[in-house]
Write a structure and sequence with these properties.
With about 240 residues, this protein is α+β, with helices and mostly antiparallel strands. It has seven helices and eight strands; from the N terminus they run αααββααβαββαβββ. The longest helix has 25 residues.
Length: about 240
C-alpha cells in the first residue's frame, strides 16, 4: 500500500515531512489569501491558510495511517470528502439577493485552495506550487485582459448612489471589485438614524458596458432600496429608467 503513494518527502523522518507539508500549506494558502485580502474579499489570508492547512493535514494523516498500519482510511475517499465539505464553506461565501448572486469567485477560490492542500498532503509540493501560480494568474490577469478589449479612452467616471436600510458597504465593494480594479472613493452617510437608512456613495472609473451588470447586482441585495448611477448629467436607476437631471 505504501508504494501507491510515492511522496516527495518520503526520505524524511515522519514528523519533519509532516511539518514541511504544514508550512508549505500555510505559505501557498497565504499567497492566495493575500490576493483576496488586497481586493477586500470576504475570504482573506487567514481563511485561505486554514483551508489549505486543513486539507493538507486530513490528506497526509489518512496516508500516514495506512503506512503505519494504524487505520484503514482511504486517502481517495478522504479527498472526496474534503471536496464535498469545502462546498458548504464555499456556499457560505455566496450572497443571494433579489435575483442575483455575489461571491462566486470567492467560493471557487476556496474550492481550489482546498485542492492545493490535498496536493500537498499527497506529497507533491511542486505541483501544488504550480497550481497556486495558476490560481494567482487567473485572479490577477483576467480583469486586465478584459481591459485589452475595453480601451482606456472609453472609460468614464461614475458616481454610484446606494440607498439602503442597513449597512451594505462590504457587499457593494465585493460586487464592484468583481468588475473593476479600483474604487476611487467610497463613503457612507446616515439619512435616518432611527430606521437605519443609509446612502452609500461610490466613485469609480469603468467602461460604460459594465454599468448594467454593476447596477443589477447591487440592486439585487436584500437591504438595498434604490440604486442610482450618474455619468455627467445622465442618471440610470435600478428600474432601467433614464432621466436628465
Amino acid at each position: 500500500m505504501k508504494n501507491m503513494y510515492i511522496e516527495f518527502f518520503g526520505f524524511l523522518p515522519l514528523y519533519i515531512a509532516l511539518g514541511i507539508k504544514i508550512v508549505t500549506a500555510l505559505i501557498l494558502g497565504g499567497l492566495v489569501g493575500l490576493d483576496r485580502e488586497q481586493k477586500m474579499k470576504s475570504a482573506g489570508i487567514k481563511t485561505n491558510m486554514l483551508i489549505c492547512l486543513g486539507a493538507t493535514v486530513y490528506t497526509a494523516l489518512s496516508i500516514l495511517s495506512i503506512d503505519q498500519g494504524i487505520g484503514a482510511a482511504d486517502p481517495n475517499r478522504v479527498a472526496a470528502q474534503i471536496v464535498s465539505g469545502i462546498g458548504f464553506l464555499g456556499a457560505g461565501a455566496i450572497i443571494h439577493g433579489r435575483g442575483g448572486v455575489v461571491g462566486l469567485t470567492t467560493a471557487a477560490t476556496i474550492w481550489v485552495v482546498a485542492a492545493i492542500g490535498v496536493t500537498i498532503g499527497y506529497g507533491y509540493p511542486i505541483a501544488a506550487g504550480l497550481i497556486t501560480i495558476t490560481i494567482l494568474i487567473v485572479l490577477r490577469m483576467v480583469t486586465p485582459l478584459y481591459k485589452l478589449f475595453e480601451s482606456e479612452k472609453h472609460f468614464r467616471r461614475f458616481h454610484v448612489e446606494v440607498l439602503s436600510q442597513g449597512r451594505v458597504k462590504g457587499m457593494v465593494k465585493e460586487i464592484v471589485y468583481n468588475r473593476v480594479d479600483q474604487i476611487d472613493e467610497i463613503y457612507e452617510e446616515m439619512m435616518d438614524v432611527d430606521n437605519d437608512i443609509r446612502l452609500l456613495h461610490v466613485y469609480l472609473k469603468v467602461h460604460p458596458r459594465r454599468i448594467p451588470q454593476i447596477q443589477k447586482s447591487i440592486s439585487s441585495l436584500i437591504k438595498v432600496d434604490k440604486v442610482k448611477i450618474h455619468e455627467a448629467e445622465r442618471t440610470i436607476d435600478h428600474n432601467n429608467e433614464e432621466s436628465d437631471e
